[in-house]
Here is the input.
Amino acid sequence: MRTPSHAVLSTTVPLMRRAGPRGFVNAVLRRMTGWSEEGLPLHVRWSHPRDLVQRWIDRYGKNRTEDLLAWDNSVPDIGGYVAGSESGEGGPGRFMGCYRYLNRRGALDMSDPGLSKAYVQDEASAVAGRGAALLPGGRVLEVGAAPGGKTAHLQRWSPTLVCMDVSFDRMGPWRDNAGRLGWRGCVPVVGEGESPPFGRPFDKVVLDVPCTATGVYRRRPRARWRWNPGALESMTALQRDLLRGAVDLVKIGGYMVYITCSLEPEENLEQVEWFERSFPRFSRAAFPAPGQLVEDGLLDIFPPEHGIDGLFAACWVRNE
Amino acid sequence: MTQTLELNEENAKAEIEKIRPYLQRDGGDIEFVSIDDDVVRVRLTGACAGCAFAQLTLQQGVEQNLKQVFPDLERVENVQQ
Here is the structure.
């Protein structure tokens, strides 16, 4: 039963007004509803896969896990990175002055000169995109570019930006965004990141990799039901293939950036440690983001504590 | 290869003018304040003022760009309003 206790009481008891033992029904319902919700296991109460909740409890403890589950079930903000800032809509971002939280009530006036150039995304995506964009490099490759959330930032600071994703279908929304937002200097490419079709290295390669998306369940409520250990394993294998595919495309002195929207260590810190063991010619650099979001040079966002979606990012410079 | 220049007020102002459009497109702005020794002082305004990314933008965006033109540049500092 997902109906909240207060709704059960406020709907049922008044029905007894004209007939029946109203006081008795009221007492029974109050006794029943008093224990039901609080006593439920967390995965039932917050509607998440049981084994995922258990792994979060093992990592975060019960209280932080419940905070995360409640976050996942909350109504997400709507906001966007606004090119030009003169829109009167909404309030500024928690971390970015050029981000706007938009008013959820009523329809947005997209003819507003600010909003017409807005890329709607969570502020965490904007933080990751802006951080990746600020790292030096004029000739840039973005892998996993569709639908364009990171491109929106990279294209502002990169004179040449090659944006690649795995299929024409995926690049369709990217092309729509490129047209609407007037992205210039971007070259869209369809290709596989495991074996990218380029012969000349780049100043910077940005990998926005596929992942289990456990950091963004608030915005993708159905994604939680795709969680299983097999999916995690196949994602981590693909992420390593993408990292391997990109290492020779970074020129000496250039940067590699790795971004996920996962909270799982297998896709984040463990991938970082694997990469640094496997490719010692790369050394970790501090990801450019506000200090409270960065630990050991890694962007590491925990949604209930930072108030934005859970993204992770690492960057390295190639030394030889 | 970027042409290098002598670090003086005139050249610094000219180079900052080239960076301004990047910040203006995000609703921010930058203005030259002074040069003391090899430190360029600027003021970030608009959406950049008070933004947690302002210092990062200054170091990663502005300072890196200016250092390519002015090899003698030590750092760029933001002067609070």
About this structure: Residues 3 and 69 of chain B are 6 Å apart (CA to CA). Residues 9-78 of chain B form a domain with the GMP Synthetase; Chain A, domain 3 fold (CATH 3.30.300.130). Chain B has a mean pLDDT of 86. Chain B touches chain A at residues 22, 25-28, 46-54, 56-57, 59-61, 64 (CB under 8 Å).
